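Sample log: Cytochrome c oxidase subunit 2.
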Amino acid sequence: MLMVPLLAGCAGPLSTLSPQGPAAAEIAVLWWAMLAGAMLITIMVLALVWRGFARAEGNAPGETFWIKGMGLGFSFAVLIAVVGAGIWVGERIQPRPGADVIRVEAIARQWGWRFLQPGPDGTMIETERRLYIPAGQPVDVVIRSEDVIHAFWVPQLAGKMDALPGRDNLLRIEAFLPGLYHGTSAEFSGIGYAGMRFEVLAYDPADPPAFTDPDFTDPDERPPE
């Protein structure tokens, strides 16, 4: 119950606990698994402290119980479960070739983003600070930088991927439903880093919008909807 007020602060357009795509949903499951593992270990430590103060003389478990059972067995069981979940999720969110996969580009610079994406007729269209993708369809984002290291991150759609100068990185994103999703650079890159935000507009493939640059304002400065 103590966690409920704390988790309420994790809501918002940049929350990983409000997944809106397959990859983000997998990452959210991993987050909850790691939280459960951390809570189990914390409970075990608190139980040991309580046991140390409350046990009766001459009625204590032996070293085998504490060292092999609780110290090694329990801790390694939790660690193996969490690492296994991480490997399982990491494998499932890898981009793989497919006939329905769309390829777009995200190019970072100090301090903004521009995107290249196919329009409704297949022609490549360049936009600033807003990436257009069809909802319900996997999209591979080729990420690079024109100067220093940045990071492409849309928490509700996928994990984070670095944008490196001279190197292309690939990240799979997908939105379950049409909507506007917020992204940011998650890598400090200088004094303008905090304003390096962008948007991903997932549109209905049957009703594509005009691909235009947004009248962009920082999500934190917008009035509540």
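Observation: The chain is about 30% helix and 25% strand.
Observation: The mean pLDDT is 85.
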